[in-house]
Amino acid sequence: MSQSLERSAHAALEALAEGFCMADADHRVTYWNAAAERLFGVPRRDALGREVWDLLPAEGASELRERLARADGAGAMLHLTLLSDRELFARHLAVHASPLESGGLALHFRDATAEQRLAAQYEQLLESIRDGFIAVDRDWRITYVNRAAETLLSVRRSRAAGVDVWPLLPKEPRAVVNAIRWTMRERGPRHLEAIHPRGKLYRGRRFDVWTHPLPDGGVSILFEDVTDRLAKEVELARLAAEAEEASRAKSRFFAAVSHELRTPLNAIVGYTHLLATNTYGNVPAGAMRASERAGVCAEHLSRLVDDVLLLTTVEIDKLPVFAATVSLAPFLDSVLPHLRQQAEAKRLDLQVDVPGGLPPIDTDPERLRQIVTALLSNAIKFTTRGVVSLRARMAGEGRWLEISIRDTGPGIDPEDRERIFGPFEQVGGEARTDSATRGTGLGLTIARQLARKLGGDITVSGTFGEGAEFVVRLPA
User: Fold this and answer.
1) Distance of CA 257 to CAs 266, 401, 414, 439, Å?
2) Is pLDDT at 228 greater than 50 in this prediction?
3) CATH number among 3.30.460.40, 2.30.30.40, 1.10.287.130, 3.10.105.10, domain 230-315
4) Which residue has the higher pLDDT, 215 or 423?
5) Level-2 CATH architecture, domain 129-225
6) Which residues pair with 473 in a beta bridge?
7) Is the pLDDT score of 122 beyond 80?
8) How high is the pLDDT of residue 471?
9) Of 4-13, 28-37, 279-288, 317-326, which gets the smallest average pLDDT?
10) Phi, psi of 5 (to 5 degrees)
């Protein structure tokens, strides 16, 4: 080596922030840089010529000597804890040992205290998890096994370090072995789901397996026991299927019973009407009142049957929709007469505001009739005095038709505005105490489902105590 090159190398070694020394074949120090002086507190003049072991704290020196002997000094990377006599804490050093042509050693000391503390934190984390974790080096030797993996593989950690990993892993299925080898070769992660290892050791359990490459060239293997989770998922799927079948059975039952009830109810309504109109001759006044009351109750029950039938039809998604062009003004002329009679009977003012230039829309007129009837009937039913109004307008640059139905009734508490759309849900109020007039509690449920089936929705707003406003929004 030329003198200029030697001076350059010396300057570079002196500029290192990490300790560096060289020793001859007898392990006597031949070079000791400035960083080594600071690291070990030994001046260069005192270090040269002494055995390297004498310059290190006793415990660290002994371990370094033994491990270098086992590694034959061939480029070994060792992690040691050197206890300084001058300090009250342990210092972790990473020591890289390389052989020299002369038979000596070059030792590179790097302070790895921060790294070691971080590694300790990771180790605590790995010990706290319930999943088995194994780390292996590039030669397939185990470098770490957590407590859960000890139990899983039936191996003691004290005996696992440095052991070949393959005898401990399941031979079947081959997907596990293939994933580990692929990660080692391609340096990419793999994830296997619900693996069922063969063998009595695994007791028929299933695992999710993750493999990840490690910075030192090895691989980490994580086993998550998912047996209980999979069993719960199967049980939940079974319960969901049973609940769905029960719901379908309920819908079939309601539909069948509703159809069977409708015929005799229609007969009762018809005959009570005939009695009330003296079709069969004069009827005593008391019998007339009884007949009228029976007719009202029969009609109420008939509406309930119709609502239940319609609701179950919506639930099983068999409700037909037939789109047609609907001009709103003439459409409402055919829908509103009987609703006006209901409003007049309660001395309510039913107001309708439909602009003359409102364009027709494409929708199912029968379903729209059911929606408007349900909302107006609901407004009239629960309004004791004042006004019920219907207004229509185009919104969203002509892409939507909005029909607003507003009343001066008791209004709806904001906390109840979603609940009222549930089946059989009603909120309290003076107008809701009579079972013959309060309704079935299905009108709003059916109206919203129909609106959504037509591609729209229904929302509710208003001031509690001053009335409510329902807005139907349908695509134009």
Assistant:
1) 14, 37, 36, 20
2) yes
3) 1.10.287.130
4) 215
5) 2-Layer Sandwich (3.30)
6) 402, 457
7) no
8) 93
9) 4-13
10) -65, -40
Do 352 and 390 meet the contact criterion of CB atoms below 8 Å apart? yes
Give start-end residues of each CATH 3.30.565.10 domain in the chain. Answer: 324-475
CATH of 324-475, one of 2.30.30.100, 3.30.565.10, 2.102.10.10, 3.40.50.720: 3.30.565.10
**Least-confidence region, from 271-280, 334-343, 407-416:** 271-280
Q: Which CATH architecture has domain 3-115?
A: 2-Layer Sandwich (3.30)
Mean pLDDT of all residues in 431-450: 64
326 φ/ψ angles, rounded to the nearest 5 degrees: -120, 120
Q: HSE on the CB side for 201, CA within 13 Å? A: 15
Name beta bridge partners: 311. Answer: none
Side by side, the strands of the sheet bearing 219-225 are 142-145, 132-136, 219-225, 207-213, 190-195
Per-residue burial over 378-406, b = 16 or more CB atoms within 10 Å of its CB, e = otherwise? bbbbbbeeeebbbbbebeeeeebbbbbbb
Burial 439-457 (b: 16+ CB within 10 A, else e): bbbbbbbbbbbbbeebebe
Is the Cβ–Cβ distance between 109 and 39 less than 8 Å?
yes
